[in-house]
Amino acid sequence: AQSVTQPDIHITVSEGASLELRCNYSYGATPYLFWYVQSPGQGLQLLLKYFSGDTLVQGIKGFEAEFKRSQSSFNLRKPSVHWSDAAEYFCAVEPPYNNAGNMLTFGGGTRLMVKP
Amino acid sequence: DTGVSQNPRHKITKRGQNVTFRCDPISEHNRLYWYRQTLGQGPEFLTYFQNEAQLEKSRLLSDRFSAERPKGSFSTLEIQRTEQGDSAMYLCASSLTISVGVLGYNEQFFGPGTRLTVL
Q: Is the dihedral of CA A110, B62, A104, A96 positive or negative?
């Protein structure tokens, strides 16, 4: 069974500083990979996704993520954090095979706080 | 179409009561998923539909839970005889699955969720 680990439960960065959120997964093949963001009391918004091809993917709001097969990782980065980026971030994996239902398995989340 | 909608947004109930939640997916999406999210955790898969067929249920979905998607449009999730452990955010997502051979490309769009509190 697949699993997703987000080692950092909380991260605090200063506004304008760079950000990296870690995500490691366990799966027999290369899954599809996603990052979602959730603001308090809200649903999940997709930031970016990786299906195949270029291992550096660009997303919305200035975020990017890099897939590293050798490390089973898909870390999320942003060069300069804005106060509005404070939220909970979830990494998720999805089996690539159509008959597997494509349901998402999420990590436990990383709560990002931004200092002024 | 403005996205996936869920009703109600909040539900407070007493232990032992039945509750029903509704999800309206994006209209052309063929798949619909239900997830449950408890405080401080990531969402966990409950069940999914392809059109009107319920194709998989998680072991988290006890006999007290039932989901339907009549006519492949909206879906309902009912919890009978609620327990305090059922308190959570229930998230619905929909997707249009594109199949290429054995692979399926599937981007899920989430609704705002229904927060259930069982007293």
A: positive
Which residues make beta-bridge pairs with B74?
none
- Interface contact flag, B35 A109, Cβ < 8 Å: no
Q: List, for residues B53-93, the tens digit of each pLDDT value.
A: 998 888 888 899 999 999 889 999 999 999 999 999 999 99
Q: Count A/B contacts: CB-CB distance under 8 Å.
A: 68
Shortest distance between the Cα of A37 and any Cα of chain B, in A, equals 11
Reference B44, options B31, B63, B60; nearest CA is: B60
In DSSP terms, which residues pair with A78 in a beta bridge? Answer: A19
Across A2-98, the runs of DSSP E, i.e. the strands, are: 3-5, 10-14, 19-21, 24-26, 32-38, 44-50, 56-58, 64-68, 73-78, 87-94
Q: Residues A74, A67: contact at Cβ < 8 Å?
A: yes
Partner-chain residue, chosen from A43, A51, A105, that has the shortest CB–CB distance to B111: A43
